[in-house]
Structure to design on (195 residues):
């Protein structure tokens, strides 16, 4: 007997619990209109669905080689680190760790747990460091033990890693964020135009 459970008519695979897929709208979540309205990037993805930030840790640390390279810093130069777990409808869906040059942000709300309306991008704008361009690099890989424990993807399931760099109008990198997503939960949408 043939198993058609993975065939074209099988439908989408089940996701965690009863969680509906999250459509990650990259262009909308990073838009100037969304940021200037003081909304979270997640508003573009979730609308009114409940979101919780868990395990938030904000501290200074020396920049590792990848962080230093992304931000144009020397290895070991201090950065503000914002590490958190995003939970939607009670399910862990994404880990995110952001790194920002401490010399630029240590005396701002970015170095505190509550960054205020509009989040980090709004606070960067207040500091004269408004992000206007973003790059994202995506790859699928096995989760680390820590990621598997915190994110709880399915058995033997990979994770999706997105590394985003935020740049000012002058081309200065002001934030580098490594996000680790459960790919069974997300649909990624990018709108590309001919520039």
């Amino acid at each position: 007997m043939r198993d058609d459970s993975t065939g074209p008519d099988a439908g989408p695979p089940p996701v965690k619990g009863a969680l509906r897929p999250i459509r990650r709208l990259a262009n909308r979540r990073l838009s100037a209109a969304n940021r200037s309205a003081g909304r979270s990037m997640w508003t573009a993805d979730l609308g009114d669905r409940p979101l919780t930030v868990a395990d938030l840790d904000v501290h200074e640390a020396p920049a590792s080689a990848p962080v230093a390279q992304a931000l144009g810093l020397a290895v070991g130069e201090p950065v503000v680190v914002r590490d958190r777990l995003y939970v939607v409808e009670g399910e862990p869906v994404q880990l995110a760790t952001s790194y920002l040059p401490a010399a630029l942000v240590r005396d701002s709300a970015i170095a505190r747990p509550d960054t205020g309306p509009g989040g980090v991008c709004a606070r960067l704008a207040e500091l004269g460091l408004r992000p206007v361009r973003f790059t994202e690099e995506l790859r699928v890989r096995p989760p680390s033990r820590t990621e598997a424990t915190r994110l709880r993807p399915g058995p033997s399931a990979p994770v999706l890693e997105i590394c985003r760099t935020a740049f000012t109008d002058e081309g200065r990198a002001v934030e580098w964020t490594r996000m680790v997503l459960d790919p069974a939960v997300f649909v990624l949408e990018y709108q590309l135009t001919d520039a």
Observations:
- Helices lie at 26-29, 32-36, 42-46, 65-71, 102-105, 119-126, 145-151.
- Residues 1-14 have pLDDT under 50 and may be disordered.
- Strands lie at 22-25, 51-62, 78-88, 91-101, 133-141, 159-167, 173-181, 186-189.
- The longest helix spans residues 119-126.
